[in-house]
Design brief:
- A hairpin with an 8-residue loop joins strand 31 (429-433) and strand 32 (442-446).
- The chain has two domains: 25-64 and 467-611, Jelly Rolls (Sandwich); 79-465, 6 Propeller (Neuraminidase), CATH 2.120.10.
- The protein is 7% helix and 41% strand.
- It is mainly beta.
- It starts with a helix and ends in a 16-residue tail after the last strand.
Length: 627
């Protein structure tokens, strides 16, 4: 028996050496001019304004901002933050029920896509680059209707994203009459009934009487939940149920109209109401940096704001409402995840307010420090006090040992009673975007159904760079490259249902910079998923190889040196992995020369070479897909 075990070990060792020899031979024979998959050239133009790093295919950033310099969208080290300031503005949001920030004219100043209570779609241009002060001017408007529906009301909730992967923004609206509208290419005017018939689909969707948002709130967020390359919708109905609303690309403009593809994720009465009116509010983001989306939610009729951390269970995203944690408790006092900083005058608990009825919840990283921040705007009517218009910022200030953030509660706008004649005194719509092109997200909240006025929360910066290294962490490369589906459609990301055939074994990253700043950069890699990017020290990850830096003895490529910026042309870094991986990630690290100048990353392209997975991962269940 012992002799058999020894022989078996020798055989396994021989096979392992043979496999390693095969991979070594492969690395010498890679045709670097013929990758299996290539990404689009980043940055993309229609990125999520609340997560600006997504413009460069990144899922995490620290000390990095995204701005427009000249005609280029660039990633650059962040400016130093001076203060966060809330100022009122007058007039341009009358009748507006929903807003979304997008830089449609690509000048670095976020504009607004708005839906009105009367059923109009309005595109509002940010006037700051023209007149020097923040205001919004209508540039496009059309009725949300078609040959079957003359119009539908614009209350309820909406979400904006590129849902059909054509590079243009689309809009999905679900109103308080169970009516759903999908608008293809929402920015482009639609002056004729033919234009509307081609681009606007409307239907009635009613899973049950409580599958509804019977108020005006932010109750939807977009996320590719099933990893098929198409953005889906996460929706909170008024009863406190959270739904996965699948995007079915085979149905064109009716992609969200199949009720059989709306799946319950979980239910929690603490974010629901039994009243005839009201609505739950939510936003999503990876708050603890584990690569799984988390949900922040509340309800207009209750004071609580809760975090539901997502977990991967058999490769499916699950939420357990019994494990939720509170930023604000149901009684309005701060929960376990938030606290008051007594050294900050406006750090307060909202418990002292007459009411605290959230209608807007938005997650972003306000100061680009790698920790999430959460804006909350409130309503004046749902809690019987006629008091509202409060804006609170729950600023991420630290993390516990598991990576979960802790927040400091900051009151930016106290709010007021309706009788005080201090409009706006409640908020219907809110959006995150870079309103002043300093690379730092700002927040705008509007009182659409009364005064039409708004508050702009501007993050003031000084024109000096944070001199600590800036880090951009890419999404898994298999989520970034373009993939051709069987029907010929090109989608971003290799679907999880076929990923086992396309594990990554070689990578090339090509970057270019503008001549606007100076400093150095590095490109590093992680063979597998980084579980907690919040504790990243770049030096713990290997440098990619420089094809122009060759060992004179072995003739092998050597790790790249920190490269100075600016330089002419582009730079390519490469690496061959020892074994194929489904989820490698890239770190681009930017080092400013000093506080007055920093590298301006202009473009990134990712290329990968793939092979089928050669091992069975115990307990790993591949997602099924019908394409």
């Amino acid at each position: 028996m012992r002799k058999f075990v020894v022989n078996l070990c020798c055989l396994l060792t021989f096979l392992l050496l043979l496999v390693l020899k095969v991979y070594a031979a492969d690395s010498m024979n890679i045709d670097w001019s013929r990758p299996n998959f290539v990404s689009s050239t980043f940055p993309i133009s229609n990125y999520d304004q609340s997560k600006p790093e997504s413009a460069f295919g990144a899922v995490y950033a620290r000390n990095i901002s995204v701005r427009v310099i000249g005609s280029n969208v660039v990633a650059v080290n962040a400016y130093k933050i001076q203060t966060v300031q809330a100022d009122p503005g007058a007039g341009p949001f009358r009748d507006v029920s929903q807003t979304h920030a997008v830089d449609f004219d690509r000048n670095g100043y976020s504009d607004i896509v708005a839906v009105t209570y009367g059923g109009m779609l309005v595109v509002k241009r940010n006037t700051m680059p023209n007149i020097g002060t923040l205001d919004f001017q209508d540039v496009t408007s059309y009725v949300i209707g078609n040959s079957s529906y003359s119009y539908i009301a614009g209350d309820g909730t909406m979400v904006v994203d590129d849902f059909n992967n054509d590079g243009k923004l689309d809009l999905f609206l679900y109103n308080a009459k169970y009516q759903a509208a999908f608008i293809n290419d929402v920015i482009t005017p639609k002056p004729t009934i033919q234009d509307k018939g081609k681009n606007i689909a409307i239907t009635r969707i009613n899973k049950d009487s409580k599958f509804l948002t019977n108020w005006t709130v932010s109750a939807m967020a977009s996320y590719d939940f099933d990893k098929d390359g198409y953005k889906d919708i996460i929706y909170a109905d008024m009863s406190g149920r959270i739904w996965f609303w699948k995007n079915d690309p085979t149905r064109g403009n009716s992609r969200f109209f199949d009720t059989s593809k709306i799946t319950l994720l979980f239910s929690d009465p603490d974010i629901g109401t039994t009243a005839s009116n009201g609505g739950a509010v939510l936003d999503i983001g990876d708050l603890n940096g584990d690569g799984v989306p988390d949900i922040v939610a509340g309800n207009t009729d209750k004071r609580g704001i809760f975090i539901y951390y997502g977990e991967l269970v058999n490769n499916e995203i699950k939420y357990n409402p019994t494990k939720k944690v509170a930023i604000v408790n149901l009684d309005g006092d701060l929960g376990t995840e938030a606290s008051v900083d007594i050294t900050i005058p406006n750090s307060k608990s909202p418990k002292y307010l007459p009411s605290f009825g959230p209608t807007i919840v938005k997650v972003t990283d306000l100061d680009r420090d790698g920790k999430p921040d959460i804006f909350v705007g409130t309503d004046a009517w749902r809690q019987g006090k006629n008091f509202g218009g409060s804006i609170y910022l729950f600023k991420g200030t630290s993390r516990d040992t598991t990576g979960k953030p802790k927040f400091t509660s900051l009151e930016l706008v106290k709010g007021s009673y309706s009788s005080e004649n201090k409009p706006p005194y409640d908020f219907d719509a809110g959006a995150i975007g870079d309103l002043d092109n300093d690379g730092i997200p700002d927040f705008v909240a509007a009182d659409g159904n009364h005064s039409g006025n708004f508050y702009k929360v501007i993050t003031k910066t000084v024109q000096q760079y944070v001199t600590e290294p800036g880090i951009l962490l890419s999404d898994y490369l298999t989520n970034l490259v373009n993939f051709k589906l069987p029907d010929g459609t090109i989608t971003r990301g290799i679907p999880r249902s076929v990923l086992q055939y396309y594990f990554v074994y070689a990578i090339e990253v090509e970057v270019s910079f503008t001549n606007d700043g100076s400093g150095k950069f590095e490109i590093r890699y992680s063979k597998g998923a980084i579980k907690d990017p919040t504790i990243i020290d770049p030096k713990n990850f290997p440098l990619m190889l420089d094809p122009n830096k060759i060992d004179p003895n072995t003739k092998e490529w050597l790790p790249m040196d920190p490269k100075p910026v600016p330089f002419n042309g582009s730079f390519k870094a490469r690496v061959v992995l020892s074994t194929p991986s489904p989820d490698p990630q890239i770190l681009i690290v930017l080092y400013p020369d000093n506080q007055n100048t920093a590298p301006h990353l202009k473009s990134v392209v990712y290329r990968i070479w793939t092979k089928p997975a050669t091992v069975e991962i115990k307990g790993f269940r591949w997602l099924k897909s019908t394409w």
